[in-house]
Amino acid sequence: MKITFWGTRGSIPVPGRDTTLYGGNTTCVEVRLAGGETVIIDAGTGIRRLGEVLRSRNGMGPIYLLMTHVHWDHIIGFPFFAPGLPAGTELLVDGHPNAMMGLQHTFDNPMGGGYFPIKIEELDLRIRFLNAVGRRPLELGGGKVDSIPLRHPQGGLGFRIREGDRTLAFITDNELEDGEALEDYVDFCRGADVLIHDAQYAPEEMDAHRGWGHSDYEMALELARRAETPRLILFHHDPSRTDAELKAFELLCRDLASKKSSPMQIEAAREDSEIHLGGDSPAYEEPGS
Question: How many Å apart are CA 212 and CA 32, to the nearest integer?
């Protein structure tokens, strides 16, 4: 299983000199299974560059697009992705019940005013909405995807992708609080090799953002610690956060883990970086490595 970060930012894309290390594109993560299946999580602005890479691959099979929810930062890249796919590509959409409606609305609004020069119906693709993973595990060749509801305005889904003895837990746009709800996420993430979780805020910022549907790095760490996951990736970076500030987040979270006597490895997600799950341990490759 290979995980590639194409977009790590939340809320709005923020390209510029202060975001070159961790990235300025919004949420998009690619998961390539050993069996050859391509799974994409969310269609933020990072999906545009992923589309360019996919066009260069030979013998590409169906593409699975899992949508956590349909807020703008998670769907805005779709019109710049789908039209560039090879003709006849099978795009299988699943996740949030409103996933297809949200993706369609990036092309055209309900009143027919239009947001894009072409209509989604004009794409030479085979797009199908599975609407399965929210109700039962989704089978992907040798892999399987489970879901869990998010604590986020208008709802959403987190995903657990398993292939063989390797597991990725991906939960973004999720507001963690101690208590029974946290234990549900602990059970969902237990045994995962890697947990990618929303850590948009610092603990001291939460009072001002309570109810916004995002977590701080301390609660993300607590979830990973209780679930005994060996690797935590802090995700959905706040648009105001610079590279220097995100590096400080990493160090603060690592220090907190050390104080709790946790051997966990912790990084803030970096655009273009990869995680390979296989062999003895998950390897995290820096951009350009």
Answer: 31
Rounded to 10 deg, the angle between the 180-189 and 217-227 helix axes is 60
CATH code of the domain covering residue 160:
3.60.15.10
Pick the closest to residue 22 from 245, 228, 221 (CA basis).
Answer: 245
Phi, psi of 287 (to 5 degrees): -55, 135
Domain that holds residue 163: 2-285
Closest alpha carbon to 167 in 269, 266, 277? 277
Residue 86 phi, psi (nearest 5): -55, 145
Name residue 80's amino acid: F
Structurally, the chain folds into a number of domains equal to 1
Identify the band that residue 179 occupies on the pLDDT scale cut at 50, 70 and 90: confident
Read off the pLDDT of residues 228-264 as tens digits, 9 standing for 90 and up: 999 999 999 999 999 999 999 999 999 999 999 999 9
Asked if 201 and 209 count as a contact pair (C-beta separation under 8 A), the reply is yes
Query: Is 0.85 surpassed by the pTM of this model?
Result: yes
